[in-house]
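ok new one. same drill as before - structure tokens go in, u give me an amino acid for every spot. 131 of them this time. try not to just spam alanines like last time pls lmao
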């Protein structure tokens, strides 16, 4: 079975972080190998994200920060199209490892849960990452 990488590019307090983590846990509980790949906002530390998750959940597992190399068979899931749009809009704030990870994750098989955010920017972000 393919791995599912759920990408989160938001701040630690954002609901999409929690929503993404819940889906990661649920998929793993179903036997689907899933990871939450957090590409940190440069204003926050890894610990800020860990604290945000530990405040709400009993377990903390299957979380990777900033650098990850997916296999060619992996599937990337974003829980709102703002995740790819924010990555595009904030690309100048990421380090080289983060940018490489984003390009590797977003250039393969991508499932995007619909949202009405970033109506104009989303197509530009798709063109940039070329999923």
């Amino acid at each position: 079975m393919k791995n599912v990488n759920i990408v989160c590019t938001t701040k630690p307090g954002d609901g999409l972080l929690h929503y993404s983590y819940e889906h990661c846990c649920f998929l793993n509980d179903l036997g689907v190998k899933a990871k939450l790949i957090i590409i940190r906002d440069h204003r926050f530390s890894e610990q800020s994200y860990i604290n945000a998750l530990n405040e709400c959940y009993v377990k903390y597992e299957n979380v990777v920060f900033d650098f990850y190399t997916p296999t060619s068979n992996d599937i990337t899931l974003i829980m709102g199209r703002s995740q790819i749009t924010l990555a595009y809009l904030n690309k100048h704030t990421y380090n080289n490892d983060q940018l490489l990870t984003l390009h590797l994750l977003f250039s393969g098989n991508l499932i995007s849960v619909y949202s009405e955010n970033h109506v104009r920017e989303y197509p530009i972000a798709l063109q940039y990452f070329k999923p």
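The mean pLDDT is 91. and btw The chain has five helices and five strands.
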